[in-house]
Structures are given as C-alpha cells and as structure tokens.
Amino acid sequence: MIDPYHLEAYGKLLTSVDGVLSMHGFYSNQEEKKMSFDLVVTLNVKDRLAVYNEAISKVKDSYPEYNLKTAMDADFNEL
What we know:
Elements (H helix, E strand, L loop, with lengths): L3 H12 L4 E10 L4 E8 L6 H15 L4 E7 L6
Parallel strand pairs: 2-3
Antiparallel strand pairs: 1-2
C-alpha cells in the first residue's frame, strides 16, 4: 500500500539532505510499520555512503516506529 502522506513527508525529509536527488520505489505498510524505498544519491559528492546514512538517520529519527528497508541508487545521467 502506498501512503501519500508518508510519500510526500519522506520525500521532503530525504531531499533536504545535500546530495540526495530523489527517492523511488516507495512502499509503505502502516499496519505493519514497514517502509521501503531506493534513495538516489548524486555521483558528485565525495562520500555517497555518508550522504545516504545521513538521510536514512533523519528518517529513522523522525519515524522511529517504522522498520526501513532501503537501498542506495545513482542517476547515471549525471556522467
């Protein structure tokens, strides 16, 4: 089930981190408190993993009741 509230809220929270371009593949199950998505991190930062971890930490801090399943992705059109 896709929850439009969480989709918009998570999108804004994630893209507030410098280096995060977008997210996709969003799925949310409110009853089971599960959420999954891919996070697109720019190739133009020195430490992509640090950017990814910062963004995921923001989500976990804001929504601690949810179990997250995430993956880092790239936009190869930047090359």
